[in-house]
């Protein structure tokens, strides 16, 4: 970004008040902001009492060695006890914790009492494999109940887990096993993906031939797909159904220090080499439990919660495992893709389980928009009462579509901004309090301090843009980058003194509400103006023919950078339609002003995305500037890039 502040071009006037009934019964009301403002640490100390501590903490925050925080440092607790056992002790053993829906249609409902037995057996199995508190366990599993059970079993015995998304290659797995120096890997023969079994175990076998992975003593294998030809390393590999099923279902959880490591998780890799983010126990669970209660207004007796993320991402850690289970929720866990075997699968699941709260990502919402309104319309979605979004800025048009076609124009939509590094939600509307604005995450949650600053670390005025920063430590903050304190300092704490630099651009609107504008690295410099990718993409998506857009700045002799847009059209639009590109350019010009008009617009069939579904703009920049592509290893499908490159001549002719 140049020394000029980030332009504020997009005007969005639509407003949605919280439904009266929801507001009247909301878990958290406007008063929480006041209380937290008056005594931030007191507020978090109060939230820590949501948990059961073996030793109650007397200190809240130790910030004597910034930016290395300690929260609730003299408290002791067990995370798995908090997520499972205490609910059973409170008489809720018969409540369903997880409704599992396999992609092939197999189902399993697991009560809290059953979950307690499963987690205890798995904990006993890990102990039999020699896992001790502090040892790292890598988990490479599909979205099956054993993934949740494994995570809780690790937490129960104090062994930090490191989940590796099941779609990653042997290379990515090996790097992560090595970086964390894992002792055990938990995997499966395979999982179901788009109607077919897809093997996982061969990637583990291959990863374990790589140097640096020698400390893995055991591989625990869940039988999911039943493939016959599975390679087996005697003495190292052991079946889950042999080892875990043979264990006692009794295990007494032991308490650990609040700062005991809970997990390492690598960021999605949108911007480059993934970072091993370290999270600990007491502060993490406090904020995750509180935010899940506040942002989703969870009523554990009646709600059915569904977060569609993979457990391999932070969203899955915090809002499939630790948030919902610490709050005693009933939730859905779905193994597969949204379009298997048909494009209405998700809506069928909402109808089947009576899902009341749905938490998903803009990429999925835009895919549903592309597939057409008629698909969700075939299902009864009337149980839904709150919709959430996370992962990327949500374009206002996608937000409105989500509310209208999934939420019957009735449910609040909460756009939640956070990162692997923040551990939990930081900026979001509260469904019973905030008048929502499509496309904006709006306000820091009670107890969270976030703002937007310029190059000189000065807070920008309302109506201006700059860098998103967090100005006070928060309980679920990362503690460091695993094994690399210096990178932790350099990446997050050196850009601005005493402030956490999130790497995202943002603006404050006239009311002081925060709008996320994409990554700072992606900001375009056009004729002396900093223009955000998000605003131009949102303007494109607001055209009725466009479902999805990715925008990058490509070097240009006249304007420093020229805006180059890649668009996916909605179902019935024709990419070869005469005048289409001019029509889209004019539309952006009208929405945002002439400065934001893309110089080139290229209709494409697909966009390069990370495996968590985020658009990878740096690769599109390589394409737009005719460079060799950078690292594509975290990409879902690298053939997308070949396809886009082959279409490029059309783009140049628009110059
Ligand atoms: P890497 O750090 O390796 O590049 P990543 O940033 O994609 O990967 P995550 O931690 O999964 O890894 O994603 C956090 C980022 O996602 C945020 O910094 C932000 O750019 C984006 N993001 C998440 N939620 C929102 C949201 N509600 N609005 C706008 N952006 C969001
Ligand atoms: Mg990041």
UniProtKB/TrEMBL annotation:
<comment type="similarity">
    <text>Belongs to the ATP-dependent AMP-binding enzyme family.</text>
</comment>
<dbReference type="InterPro" id="IPR025110">
    <property type="entry name" value="AMP-bd_C"/>
</dbReference>
<keyword id="KW-0460">Magnesium</keyword>
<feature type="modified residue" description="N6-acetyllysine">
    <location>
        <position position="614"/>
    </location>
</feature>
<feature type="binding site">
    <location>
        <position position="527"/>
    </location>
    <ligand>
        <name>CoA</name>
    </ligand>
</feature>
<keyword id="KW-0436">Ligase</keyword>
<dbReference type="GO" id="GO:0016208">
    <property type="term" value="F:AMP binding"/>
</dbReference>
<feature type="binding site">
    <location>
        <position position="504"/>
    </location>
    <ligand>
        <name>ATP</name>
    </ligand>
</feature>
<feature type="binding site">
    <location>
        <position position="546"/>
    </location>
    <ligand>
        <name>Mg(2+)</name>
    </ligand>
</feature>
<dbReference type="GO" id="GO:0046872">
    <property type="term" value="F:metal ion binding"/>
</dbReference>
<dbReference type="GO" id="GO:0005829">
    <property type="term" value="C:cytosol"/>
</dbReference>
<feature type="binding site">
    <location>
        <begin position="391"/>
        <end position="393"/>
    </location>
    <ligand>
        <name>ATP</name>
    </ligand>
</feature>
<dbReference type="GO" id="GO:0005524">
    <property type="term" value="F:ATP binding"/>
</dbReference>
<feature type="binding site">
    <location>
        <position position="315"/>
    </location>
    <ligand>
        <name>CoA</name>
    </ligand>
</feature>
<dbReference type="InterPro" id="IPR032387">
    <property type="entry name" value="ACAS_N"/>
</dbReference>
<feature type="binding site">
    <location>
        <position position="519"/>
    </location>
    <ligand>
        <name>ATP</name>
    </ligand>
</feature>
<feature type="domain" description="AMP-dependent synthetase/ligase">
    <location>
        <begin position="91"/>
        <end position="474"/>
    </location>
</feature>
<feature type="binding site">
    <location>
        <begin position="193"/>
        <end position="196"/>
    </location>
    <ligand>
        <name>CoA</name>
    </ligand>
</feature>
<feature type="binding site">
    <location>
        <position position="541"/>
    </location>
    <ligand>
        <name>Mg(2+)</name>
    </ligand>
</feature>
<dbReference type="InterPro" id="IPR020845">
    <property type="entry name" value="AMP-binding_CS"/>
</dbReference>
<dbReference type="InterPro" id="IPR042099">
    <property type="entry name" value="ANL_N_sf"/>
</dbReference>
<dbReference type="Pfam" id="PF16177">
    <property type="entry name" value="ACAS_N"/>
</dbReference>
<keyword id="KW-0547">Nucleotide-binding</keyword>
<dbReference type="InterPro" id="IPR045851">
    <property type="entry name" value="AMP-bd_C_sf"/>
</dbReference>
<dbReference type="GO" id="GO:0003987">
    <property type="term" value="F:acetate-CoA ligase activity"/>
</dbReference>
<dbReference type="GO" id="GO:0019427">
    <property type="term" value="P:acetyl-CoA biosynthetic process from acetate"/>
</dbReference>
<keyword id="KW-0479">Metal-binding</keyword>
<dbReference type="Pfam" id="PF00501">
    <property type="entry name" value="AMP-binding"/>
</dbReference>
<keyword id="KW-0007">Acetylation</keyword>
<feature type="domain" description="AMP-binding enzyme C-terminal">
    <location>
        <begin position="535"/>
        <end position="614"/>
    </location>
</feature>
<feature type="domain" description="Acetyl-coenzyme A synthetase N-terminal">
    <location>
        <begin position="30"/>
        <end position="83"/>
    </location>
</feature>
<comment type="function">
    <text>Catalyzes the conversion of acetate into acetyl-CoA (AcCoA), an essential intermediate at the junction of anabolic and catabolic pathways. AcsA undergoes a two-step reaction. In the first half reaction, AcsA combines acetate with ATP to form acetyl-adenylate (AcAMP) intermediate. In the second half reaction, it can then transfer the acetyl group from AcAMP to the sulfhydryl group of CoA, forming the product AcCoA.</text>
</comment>
<dbReference type="Pfam" id="PF13193">
    <property type="entry name" value="AMP-binding_C"/>
</dbReference>
<dbReference type="InterPro" id="IPR011904">
    <property type="entry name" value="Ac_CoA_lig"/>
</dbReference>
<dbReference type="InterPro" id="IPR000873">
    <property type="entry name" value="AMP-dep_synth/lig_dom"/>
</dbReference>
<keyword id="KW-0067">ATP-binding</keyword>
<protein>
    <recommendedName>
        <fullName>Acetyl-coenzyme A synthetase</fullName>
        <ecNumber>6.2.1.1</ecNumber>
    </recommendedName>
</protein>
<feature type="binding site">
    <location>
        <position position="543"/>
    </location>
    <ligand>
        <name>Mg(2+)</name>
    </ligand>
</feature>
<feature type="binding site">
    <location>
        <begin position="415"/>
        <end position="420"/>
    </location>
    <ligand>
        <name>ATP</name>
    </ligand>
</feature>
């Amino acid at each position: 970004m140049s020394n000029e502040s980030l332009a504020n071009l997009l005007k969005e006037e639509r407003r949605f008040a919280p439904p009266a009934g929801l507001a009247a019964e909301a878990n958290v009301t406007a008063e929480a902001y006041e209380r937290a403002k008056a005594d931030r640490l007191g507020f978090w100390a109060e939230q820590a009492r949501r948990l059961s501590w073996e030793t109650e903490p007397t200190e809240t925050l130790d910030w004597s060695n910034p930016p290395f925080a300690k929260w609730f440092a003299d408290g002791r607790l067990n995370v798995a006890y908090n997520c499972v056992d205490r609910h059973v002790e409170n008489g809720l053993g018969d409540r369903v914790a997880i409704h599992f829906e396999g992609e092939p249609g197999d189902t399993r409902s697991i009560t809290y009492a059953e979950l307690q037995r499963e987690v205890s057996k798995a904990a006993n199995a890990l102990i039999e494999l020699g896992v001790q508190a502090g040892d790292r366990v890598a988990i490479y599993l599909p979205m099956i109940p054993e993934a949740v059970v494994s995570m809780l079993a690790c937490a129960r015995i104090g062994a930090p887990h490191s989940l590796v998304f099941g779609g990653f290659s042997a290379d990515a797995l090996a790097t992560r096993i090595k970086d964390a120096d894992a002792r055990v890997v938990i995997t499966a023969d395979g999982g179901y993906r788009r109607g077919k079994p897809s093997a996982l175990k061969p990637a583990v076998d291959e990863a374990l031939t790589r140097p640096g992975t020698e400390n893995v003593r055991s591989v625990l294998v869940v039988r999911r797909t039943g493939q016959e030809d599975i390679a087996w390393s005697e003495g190292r590999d052991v079946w889950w159904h042999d080892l875990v099923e043979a264990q006692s279902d009794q295990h007494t959880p032991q308490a650990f220090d609040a700062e005991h490591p809970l997990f390492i998780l690598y960021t999605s890799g949108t911007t480059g080499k993934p970072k091993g983010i370290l999270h600990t126990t007491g502060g993490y669970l406090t904020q995750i439990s509180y935010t899940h209660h506040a942002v989703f207004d969870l009523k554990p007796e009646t709600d059915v919660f569904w977060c569609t993320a993979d457990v391999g991402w932070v969203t899955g850690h915090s809002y499939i495992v630790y948030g919902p289970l610490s709050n005693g929720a009933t939730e859905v866990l779905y193994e597969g893709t949204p379009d298997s075997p048909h494009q209405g699968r998700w809506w069928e699941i909402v109808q089947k389980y009576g899902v009341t709260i749905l938490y998903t990502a803009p990429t999925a919402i835009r895919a549903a928009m592309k597939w057409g309104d008629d698909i969700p319309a075939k299902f009864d979605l009337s149980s839904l009462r709150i919709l959430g979004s996370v992962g990327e800025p949500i374009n206002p048009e996608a937000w409105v579509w989500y509310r209208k076609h999934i939420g019957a124009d009735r449910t609040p939509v909460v756009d939640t901004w956070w990162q692997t590094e923040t551990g939990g939600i930081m900026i979001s509307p509260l469904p019973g309090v905030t008048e929502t604005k499509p496309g904006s995450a709006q306000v820091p949650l009670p107890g969270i301090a976030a703002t937007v600053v310029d190059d000189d670390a000065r807070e920008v005025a309302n109506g201006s843009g700059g860098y998103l920063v967090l100005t006070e430590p928060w309980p679920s903050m990362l503690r460091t980058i695993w094994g690399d304190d210096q990178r932790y300092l350099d990446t997050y704490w050196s850009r601005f003194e005493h402030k956490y630099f999130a790497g995202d651009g943002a603006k404050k609107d006239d009311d002081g509400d925060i709008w996320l504008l994409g990554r700072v690295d992606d900001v375009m410099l056009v004729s002396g103006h900093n223009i955000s990718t998000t605003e131009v993409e949102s303007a494109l998506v607001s055209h009725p023919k466009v479902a999805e857009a990715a925008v990058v700045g490509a070097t240009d002799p006249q304007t420093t950078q020229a805006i180059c847009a890649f668009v996916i059209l909605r179902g019935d639009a024709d990419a070869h339609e005469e005048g289409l590109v001019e029509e889209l350019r004019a539309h952006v010009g009208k929405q945002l002003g002439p400065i934001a008009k893309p110089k080139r617009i290229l209709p494409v069939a697909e966009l390069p995305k990370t495996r968590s579904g985020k658009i990878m703009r740096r690769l599109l920049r390589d394409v737009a500037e005719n460079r060799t592509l950078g690292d594509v290893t975290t990409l879902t499908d690298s053939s997308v890039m070949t396809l886009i490159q082959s279409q490029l001549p059309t783009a140049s002719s628009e110059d």
